[in-house]
Hints:
Elements: H1 4-21, H2 26-53, E1 57-60, E2 71-74, H3 76-103, H4 110-129, H5 133-151, H6 157-188, H7 193-199, H8 205-223, H9 232-235, H10 241-266, H11 273-292, H12 297-318, H13 321-352, H14 363-366, H15 368-382, H16 388-403, H17 406-435, H18 442-445, H19 448-451, H20 470-488, H21 490-504
Amino acid sequence: MNALVPLLVALPLLGAAITLVFGRNTRVQVIVTVATLAAVSVIAATLLVVVDQTKPIAVMVGGWPAPFGIVLYVDRLAALLVLVSSIVLVAVLLFSVGQGAADGAEETPISIFNPSYLILAAGIFNAFIAGDLFNLYVGFEILLVASYVLITLGSTESRIRTGAVYIVVSLVSSVLFLVAIALIYAALGTVNMAQIAERIGEIPPSTQLVLHLMLVVAFGIKAAVFPMSFWLPDSYPTAPAPVTAVFAGLLTKVGVYALIRTETQLFNVSSINTLLMIVALATMVIGILGAVAQAELKRILSFTLVSHVGYMVFGLAIATPAAIGATVYYIVHHIIVQTTLFLAVGLVERRAGSTSILKVRGLMKAAPLIAVLYFVPAINLGGLPPFSGFIGKFALFQAAAQVATPLIWVLIVGGVLTSLLTLYALMRAWNLAFWRDKDETPEEQENERIAHLGSAPAADEQQERRRIPTIMTFATGGMVAVTLALTVFAGPIYGLCERIGANLLQPVHLDMLDGDEASS
Length: 520
């Protein structure tokens, strides 16, 4: 099984090289990209079964032992997130193939999209299986370089402008992360995560706190944690629909994953849990208030994305096995559901020519299938039972109630209100864009309840309606089916997440990495 681990990164990079060679043959590019990501999905599923039944796997790249060489480390958490990410990447790729086939190279130039997409995937997978901080940094930089290309595809004025903001913010985060790595190496003589965990107690608490906060801020920017989330709502909505979907589903979760490793394995002694709880509450509440104030579907979803990152930080701050397990389940749920919603909104944009809830109407009659594809993940994200959103939030609140400090009760109330406001924002969009009769005039329909949205940030100017290829609907429908599978198979999935939560709070010692495999 050890040989499979490097393939998680090597295959996407090899696939990117092949797609560059066949830059003028889009069919070959698509075949190579789909085959590569499908192969990674199979490998990730195999590794997940193995590490869940036996023990984590550590591979020393080039044969150099830790902490001198690069360690690729696959435990239950890494394998699960690689598997979920690969599934999402395949679905979004199929969506983009349909869009490219219908629109040509105008929206998503396939010759550029496919190699960039595979490089993005390689960076994501590398970040998930990195066993040292510098390799984690490399993973971030690989995915960020690819994301710079993807977010500006089409080279429109709005995409270049928001892409520039995204690039500047990402570079600031990367520089901060790199400085933190340098300081950690100067203080501890290593960047290997297992050895950092062993040596961190040797340095003064004040130094631990400085290093800890630097990493949290760097990863918090990438995860779009308030107040470092200002860049996201303006950056994501302007990108092409498939790019927005994969960014919303995966990129912030890489930052959350890095926070999980930091809090559970590197600095589990130097605690900033109270600060994280305050940040989590602010992220949930301010993010969802931003969503309620929007009049454009992509911006509504972007603000809900920020808001629901707060749930993940909340679970991480509780720092109990039950809370960490609930957080992991919620991450899996949010990756899939958020991606699905953005794909559904991409269909709305093509069918109606806009994503402004003030302009779009009558889609329930005109496109009932799209209405269903939006409605199911929307109520799931809102947390209605029995869907996975309800399961994840209920498990998180239950774990929080077991600790039951006054601040945690405030967060529970904030989490419940955030869930209700999420449902309100998404269902208001449903009522206006889908349920509102197409024949109603704005004067007849608008009232005091929605008049304030006229001044809210809305969509771009009305575009021409475009044909929706079957493969785009199929990809979105497939993701809706996956969201339902999270509910149907919630028992075994949540059981796996509980085991992840229990194991993450157990330190990984350097002697576990002496051979090709590491014990749990």
